[in-house]
Amino acid sequence: MSTPPAIQRFVAAAEAVGLSPEIREFPQGTKTAADAARAIGCEVGQIVKSLVFMAGAEPFLALTSGPNRADTSKLSALMGGVPVRRADAEEARSATGFSIGGTPPFGYPRPLRALFDRDLLAYQEVWAAAGTPNAVFPIRPDDLVRASGAQPADLKE
Ligand code: 5CA
């Protein structure tokens, strides 16, 4: 099977920042953090959810550890006090160029400001979506912070 265009786009973006991600595709699907952890055989905490929020009119990213929920009050404080809400599916797709369930943590048409759940720093290796709902890749958390330009923060509920 040939590589889906969304994965090719993500790989090109990763290579542009000096990474060569080892993409793993799982036919059983990695759409949610629980699905991904089950397929990979890792802890749910090692799964990076790439969640899109809106701070006023500005889309931004909360890279959140699998079992955690991003706290909108903490996100708002981190974004300078602007009201924060979850992006809807269309806003998320338009900001990132990828669909929900496959959104990678970086590699967008325009870079987004990103916050990084500190809980992810506890692991040697974490896994994030690679462009589609059945593709993931492993990365060291500090490499992910660098590639996404994210700010590590306490953002969980
Ligand atoms: N591939 C997996 C693991 S890396 C993944 O992408 N997980 S995720 O958490 O980053 O993406 C799914 C998330 O999208 C869910 O947590 C869910 O909260 C969110 N989501 C699902 N449907 C919608 C929707 N209609 N609008 C906004 N967000 C949604």
Structure description:
By secondary structure, the chain is α/β, with parallel strands linked by helices. It is built from five helices and eight strands, in the order αβαββαβαβββαβ. It has helices spanning 5-16, 33-40, 72-78, 89-96, 141-148, and strands at residues 24-25, 47-55, 58-65, 84-86, 114-117, 126-129, 135-139, 151-153. Strands 1, 2, 3, 4, 5, 6, 7 and 8 form an eight-stranded mixed beta sheet that branches. It is globular and about 45 Å long. The structure holds 5'-O-(N-(L-cysteinyl)-sulfamoyl)adenosine.
Name every ligand kind in the structure.
Answer: 5'-O-(N-(L-cysteinyl)-sulfamoyl)adenosine
Shape: globular
Assign the CATH superfamily.
Answer: YbaK/aminoacyl-tRNA synthetase-associated domain
- Percent range of helical residues: 25-40%
Mean pLDDT: 97
Overall number of domains: 1
CATH class: Alpha Beta
Strand fraction = 15-25%
Kindly report the CATH topology: YbaK protein
End-to-end CA span: 41 Å
Give me the number of helical elements. Answer: 5
Q: Structural class of the secondary structure composition?
A: alpha/beta
What's the multimeric state?
A: single chain
Report on the biggest sheet: 8 strands, mixed
According to DSSP, the number of beta strands is 8
Rg for CA atoms: 14 Å
N-to-C SSE series? Answer: HEHEEHEHEEEHE
